[in-house]
Amino acid sequence: MSKPPTKDTRSPVRLPSKANQAIGPIAKRIVVILGGLLVAASAAIHLHLWAGGYRHIPVVGNLFLAQGITGIVIAITLVLRSRPSVIVISAGFLGATMAGLLLSASRGIFGFRETLYAPYAVTSLAVEAVGVLIFVILLAQIWTSRHREIRAPSPRPKRQLR
Questions:
Q1: Phi, psi for 4 (deg, rounded to 5)
Q2: Which of 99, 101, 91 is nearest to 60 (CA)?
Q3: CB atoms < 10 A from the CB of 85, how many?
Q4: Residues β-bridged to residue 109
Q5: What is the pLDDT of residues 121-148, one digit of tens each?
Q6: pTM of the predicted model, to two decimals?
């Protein structure tokens, strides 16, 4: 009689190759800089619109100025200190900006109703959507790399029959 196959409960060791170790931080840095540029682009669009006439719209004008200034601060902080918390703040900032435009276009906000045909509306949405997507992917990669279990297979001691 043959013995039934035993189940191997050991996890495979997954160590990154030297090439992946060298490329990983560089690729992450490039993605963070790209994300920072997208946050800065969103800020620049809002500052441009504020200077072009949105500053005269009550409440909304101040929000455009605040978005522009805050976006520049977040972009600089992101590039200088690319911690996961700053990446989350960047994604939330772009997502909130996108939500504000969509809310303004669909229902109006603070007595002002925007249209998606307004200058830079579609450009702003595209920049912010790509930014959110990049940050979510980056955060998922960071999370999985930190929570990946790397366990070496441990030999099981043989049981002795008595």
A1: -65, 150
A2: 101
A3: 8
A4: 112
A5: 999 999 999 999 999 999 988 888 776 5
A6: 0.74
* CA pair distance 108, 47, nearest whole angstrom: 20
Q: What is the dihedral of CA 118, 48, 132, 37, to 10 degrees?
A: 140
C-beta of residue 139 within 8 angstroms of C-beta of residue 87? yes
What does the pLDDT look like over 16-68, one tens digit per residue?
Answer: 544 444 358 888 899 999 999 999 999 999 999 999 988 999 898 999 999 99
